[in-house]
From TrEMBL:
GO terms for biological process: carbohydrate metabolic process. The lineage of its organism: Bacteria, Candidatus Gottesmaniibacteriota. It comes from Candidatus Gottesmanbacteria bacterium GW2011_GWB1_43_11. This is Polysaccharide deacetylase. Keywords: Membrane, Signal, Transmembrane, Transmembrane helix. Residues 130-288 form the NodB homology domain. GO terms for molecular function: hydrolase activity, acting on carbon-nitrogen (but not peptide) bonds.
């Protein structure tokens, strides 16, 4: 039986139609793959560009000196023992301390802590236009009785550097429960200040290394937090001690060298200012 001309024509057209459909499909698939590749390449290019810009910003921050007053405090209390001349020389009346806070806040200063400074150097966050850091050395009990209520009143953050061997030692120093309550306030970042508060520069380096490591480990065990910042006892330091701090995992260290300009290169020898009993314009002139 012979096929009709129409069926012959249909039979000839069918392969052509199938090939055409395959070509159209393949072309569409190819276009979609090209678009996916282009989008992926564009995304990678944007990501690489953003990373490059971020690296440039980090480098700029690390190379540019930063105006950052870091204030140094010891005692904040009313000294009752007039024969304790050392305590009196290091002490500031709580009312004067509160007046200093008022002065600084009124003139636009915003307190930060050391982790904020490192985040700034690492390109993770910006700093306020007029940053300032309050630091307290040793871990005296008046930090709990006199300082903490003022911090809560103004809701400002500060650094507290603790010598671990002095905790619970006498009535002069913080107890473990007090220290934990201080941390629970969310207003205090804890730093290490050695174990025995010895001048590390005059110790054998191996002994100084133990003081550094054990103070960090004991505080981390006590607080349940990473301790990344250090204060040199008596502000005395050396290049060897700075090297040991880096090995131990610290990010910063403060000294008693005077000054208000900080740099990333000197993050292990940050300068501090003793505000003493100055207030108002005298205090502002001291830090500006």
């Amino acid at each position: 039986m012979k096929r009709s001309p129409r069926r012959k024509k249909q039979a000839l057209l069918l392969p052509f139609i199938l090939v055409t459909l395959i070509i159209i499909f393949a072309f569409g698939f190819l276009q979609s793959q090209i678009k996916i590749t282009q989008d992926h390449a564009t995304s990678n290019l944007q990501k690489n560009y953003d990373q490059f810009v971020n690296l440039l910003e980090i480098e700029k921050r690390r190379l540019t000196p930063l105006k950052l007053p870091i204030l140094l405090y010891h005692y904040i209390e009313i000294v009752t023992n007039l024969r304790d001349t050392i305590r009196q020389s290091l002490n500031i009346n709580p009312q004067i301390f509160e007046s200093q806070i008022n002065t600084l806040l009124t003139h636009g200063y915003q307190p930060i802590v050391m982790s904020d400074l490192i985040d700034y150097f690492d390109g993770k966050k910006a700093l306020p236009s007029k940053p300032i850091i309050f630091t307290f050395d040793d871990g005296y009990r008046d930090f709990y009785t006199d300082v903490l209520p003022i911090l809560k009143k103004y809701h400002i953050k500060v650094m507290l550097y603790v010598s671990t061997g002095l905790v619970d030692s006498t009535r002069n120093y913080l107890t473990q429960p007090q220290l934990k309550e201080v941390i629970a306030s969310g207003l205090v970042e804890i730093g290490a200040h050695s174990v025995t508060h010895s001048n590390l520069r005059y110790l054998n380096l191996a002994v100084a290394k133990t003081e550094i490591l054990e103070s960090k480990q004991e505080l981390e065990k006590l607080t349940g937090q990473k301790v990344k910042h250090f204060a040199f006892p008596y502000g005395d330091y050396s290049s060897d001690l700075i090297l040991e701090l880096g090995k131990a995992g610290f990010d910063t260290a403060v000294t008693v060298d005077p000054g208000t300009t900080q740099t990333y290169a000197e993050r292990f020898s940050l300068k501090r200012i003793r505000p003493g009993r100055t207030t108002d314009t005298v205090l502002l002139k001291l830090i500006e």
